[in-house]
Write a structure and sequence with these properties.
By secondary structure, the protein is an alpha+beta fold. It has two domains: 97 residues, GMP Synthetase, Chain A, domain 3; 72 residues, no CATH class. The chain contains six helices and three strands; from the N terminus they run E-H-H-E-E-H-H-H-H. It has a three-stranded antiparallel sheet, with helices on one face. The longest helix is centred in the middle third of the chain and has 34 residues. The N and C termini lie far apart (76 Å).
Length: 177
């Protein structure tokens, strides 16, 4: 027999719809077979029972706890241990299911931020390198000296100037000379 306890924060309880019995039933129905499969119980041999109760935490806040008990109805003795790696994977799968909408929203925000960063980085790079591409070799050598010696122009805190200079020389200045 396996016992799995799922708990979510009191803030997420109502926000995600877990204040309704149907939402818990849906979670149990959809996930119990997946959990059982991970611990080696075939779906046709799975039996389970579940219950939800509110548990008061140390701050007096009620949090829902879902208990799922499941077992292989055709096997009398089963190894009473679930490997830590399997338990972590089960937990991760449940988190993905419970927070699916939040994860989708965060992924969209992350993708938008990445796309905007790419657009802005291209503009920044072009605006930053354009004057350098128009320099003569003598002007570039002077700029390089200034960057290395003048604290106001020193980019080493932001960039690895050894790689930066070579990259600029190879990709911008030397192509133009």
């Amino acid at each position: 027999m396996y016992d799995n306890i799922i708990s979510i924060s009191s803030e997420d309880f109502a926000r995600l719809g877990y204040d309704k019995q149907e939402k818990w039933k849906e979670l149990v129905k959809n996930e119990t077979h997946k959990i059982a499969e991970k611990v080696g119980i075939m779906p046709n041999r799975l039996e389970y029972v579940s219950a939800v109760h509110l548990k008061e935490d140390a701050n007096g806040i009620l949090k829902p706890n879902l208990h799922i008990l499941f077992w292989d109805k055709e096997q009398e003795i089963k190894k009473p241990y679930v490997h830590t790696k399997t338990a972590v994977q089960i937990r991760a799968d449940l988190i993905k299911t419970i927070y699916e909408d939040d994860i989708k929203e965060l992924t969209e925000i992350k993708n938008l931020a990445r796309d905007n960063l790419a657009i802005n980085a291209d503009t920044f790079y072009t605006n930053f390198t354009k004057p350098i591409t128009k320099m003569t070799k003598k002007q570039y050598v002077q700029l390089e000296t200034d960057i290395k010696t003048n604290p106001d122009m020193n980019l080493s805190k932001m960039f690895d100037t050894n790689n930066l200079n070579k990259k600029f020389v190879d990709e911008t200045v030397m192509k133009r000379l």
